[in-house]
Protein 1
Amino acid sequence: MPTITPDQVRVPADVMPDVVDIYVDNYMKATRGTGRLMLFACDQKIEHMNKDFYGEGIDIADAEPEHLFQIGKEGVIGVLAGQRGLIAQYAKDYPNINYIVKMNSKTNLVGTKQEDPYSPQLTDLDAVLAMREAGVNIVGLGYTIYLGSEYEATMMAEAGELIAQAHANGLLVVLWIYPRGKAVTAEKDPDLIAGAAGVALCLGADFVKVNPPKPEDGRTPAEALKIAAMAAGRTGLVCAGGSTVDAETFLTQLYDQIHVGGACGNATGRNIHQRSLDEAVRLTKAVSAITLADYEVERALKVFNGEEDFSLDML
């Protein structure tokens, strides 16, 4: 079982001395003292709008936004990531969840054939810091960059400044980086995914969320991911969960991403929240059992099936 102590947390040089303890505390909370990140991604209400929350194959519980926070409370996660307004509406009722505030978002209504993607920053850091001062358990920020977009320079500049400001205030930063735009012909090309990981490192991110690569040279996705994990250096790499698949397939992919691909966690949204509360909670426990406690897939499936329990007290 991976564990770290506070003195083992690598603190970036742009974290000011007077907030080092805050940064370390946030890192330990976000990773549950393991150095690995179990990120529950709840930012799709803007990114994909309502199609990810209501429709065929989606449990009706997901139509109610509070479903996300109930999962976060009853399940086992590291952080819940969502936009500032979403978190602001529910955080007082769910004070014990660790929150990542997603600082930028866009809908998917304008496709790349119409215009290259640009995800504008929705709020400034002062508004987030005010929420933290008011008692919301905010441990970090999130930001999306679309590499290959004609607007990539703007997004990288915004992200770089945001990371410097966040670290100066003791907050972590997770970058979502996806190659996307008219200049990109294969969004999941392994070299592009590795390049995205390297960009995140150069911008100073603590973690980077990327899509799993799709190699065409006989390697498995997990084998191709290893190069991206190496390119990320001291920025922890986690993979997007993607659309919903059966639990065994998802848990097997996750195990391979960590133990073959060198990922240091996961970033999962739809695969969790599109299920009923009971099933979603059990899946968070199974995912966390692999991510935070190095369970084998077979044992994690027992957690998912309710044959074995998993809780934070077991870490």
Protein 2
Amino acid sequence: MSGGKPAAEQRPGIAVVGAGYWGPNLVRNLMASPDWDLRWLCDLDTDRAARVAAPYSSVRVTGSLDDVLADPAVTAVAIATPARTHRDVALTALRAGRHVLVEKPLAATHAEGAELVAEADERGLVLMCDHTYCYTPAVTAIRDMIHSGMLGEVHFVDSVRINLGLIQPDVDVLWDLAPHDLSILDYILPETVKPVAVAATGADPLGTGRTCVAYLTLRLSSGAIAHGHVNWLSPTKVRTTIVGGSKRTLVWDDLNPAQRISVFDRGVDLARPEELGDDQRRAALVSYRLGDMVAPALGEREALSVAVEEFARAVRTGTPAATDGRAGLRVLRILEAASRSLAENGALVAVNDDALEGK
């Protein structure tokens, strides 16, 4: 490449805060990205951070966020620390004038998330929530099919996310696993369709002190429902989502790389009474449609690499990311309502529509 600055100097600098479970994935994808110059890895456990950064000689390690923010070349910070720390770390970075990418959930509470969104807005900075599944080829395809009208009006969404997983020390299974499915739902639904209420039930059969198995049902403004099952105790791993539409039904099996999405031209049709004659009114109004199944081809690309690319695009253009802070707030709003429902033995709890969240 002739002329201009070296590629590394043209790229904005970024730091990763947190070298635990998700931090190494961010480090790997940022190092591979042509959009970013990864300069720092920050973690209170500097030995752990040093092990993660060892393959990358250009990445400096520190246990202090102040070191990171003292580097004028760092224009953005990617946060992969426990949820209870998201507010403090992100707020410090925003107040230092840095763009921020935060792993899910955006914060530990809706109030903390709202504080981050307001701070980013006031300073004209990008705040993005790493709702990674929204950047998979499968979820992108599902969103396109719904928004194009291919599936028709959405009648129901049913998701299962279960496995034999780690019992988290600071959150229950709802706050650990449900953000994935709630962020997907927020991303794929038309803008006119919003959750209005949620009912959640759960159990702690092992006596861990937190819910390990949970079910939640969302009422949508369109009259449809969305249902989710999250579970840390299942000996089998299942990752499926079904979207039932008035025209077609879609099944997404994330553990089947050969056929992640199947679209069925099958369903139930209901004739309108006004369209029928007197004799026909006595007959059944329901008919069943049995058509073909198609499995659309999908590209394979790591979702986090797409999320990193989207963060760069948002920073470069000054426009919101596809999963911006407000998307993170909408998920937090549902999680808090679900937690209240869980505490009230499955009572239906309203999901308040906050003007700050907009869609």
